[in-house]
Amino acid sequence: MRSPRPPLVLVTAPDGSGGADPAYLERRTGLYLAAIRRAGGEPRTIDERAVTAERRRAFAAMEGLLLSGGGDIHPARYGRGVEGSREIEPARDALEAEAWAVAAERGLPVLGICRGLQAVNVFAGGTLTQHVDGHAGPAWDRGPAATHPIRIDAATRLGRLLAEAGFDGGEVNTFHHQAVTGADLAPGLVAVGWGESPVGPIVEILEGSDGRWVAAVQCHPERTDSTPPAFEALFRTFVAAAASARESAVPRRPAAPGGG
């Protein structure tokens, strides 16, 4: 009997044609792709340069969506002015908002990582704290990762998952200067993990509460050199959710991207 093909996971990526080193961005994006493959999925990348037809095909084919790390979301997305945001990526914001909307309409699982956690919160109706002093640490591959402890709520789905995998609180890496506080958290999202910061407790892990598989982490679990191995369970569960979504999917016509 032929084995089922791996579920297709669409991974958003930074635009490699800008001022950043394209080889560096490719290595960084490659870590997400490797994590999805380790978990049994088939990753495919998309960035803001994709034209309407490419987006339509990618959104129709995806069975899971991974919103990856990167620059800041434009504060206009959550009704604020620029008050500490930097390296803003409005074209990427629009791409990811389109992808999020299609995933929601189709009931597909979504995993957000770092910027991706912030994107999930903003697209779900929340806000962001635009700057947290001293929380970012060195950029990836530019020195040892900064780490800090987090605590998790073992009564939540992801909290139980991580605890069963061997993590019930401890050190994770930190590469972010923005954050989601309790006051920023969107309706329909639940805080799973918390860390301390100069602005008070910030959400390090969150999950959806409406039955669809939605999860996000503020750390970078694809960077296995500075992440507890228990976080591999997050990728495995995400890919399994994508496979389940494919099994229960009703065939649909390709969705036309919205206006972001």
Describe this structure in words.
This protein is an alpha/beta fold and 260 residues long. It is 30% helix and 18% strand. The chain has a 9-stranded mixed sheet, with helices on both faces. The longest helix has 17 residues, at 22-38. It is globular and about 45 Å long. The chain starts with 7 loop residues before the first strand and ends in a 12-residue tail after the last helix. 43% of the residues are buried.
Question: What series of H and E elements makes up the topology?
Answer: EHEHEHEHEHEEEEH
Q: What separation lies between the terminal Cα atoms?
A: 42 Å
Structure class? alpha/beta
Q: Mean of residue pLDDT?
A: 90
Classify the beta-strand content into a percent band.
Answer: 15-25%
The count of DSSP E runs of length 2 or more, i.e. the number of strands, is 9
Q: Work out the helicity level.
A: 25-40%
User: What is the CA-atom radius of gyration, in angstroms?
Assistant: 17 Å
The poorly predicted ranges are: 250-260
What form results from the Cα inertia axes?
Answer: globular
Largest sheet: 9 strands, mixed
Strand order of the largest sheet: 2-1-3-4-9-8-7-5-6
* Count of alpha and pi helical runs: 6
Keywords:
260 residues, alpha/beta, nine-stranded mixed beta sheet, globular, disordered C terminus
Secondary structure topology:
Layout: E1 8-12, H1 22-38, E2 42-46, H2 52-61, E3 64-67, H3 90-106, E4 110-113, H4 115-123, E5 147-152, H5 157-164, E6 170-173, E7 189-195, E8 202-208, E9 214-217, H6 232-248
Parallel strand pairs: 1-2, 1-3, 3-4, 4-9
Antiparallel strand pairs: 5-6, 5-7, 7-8, 8-9
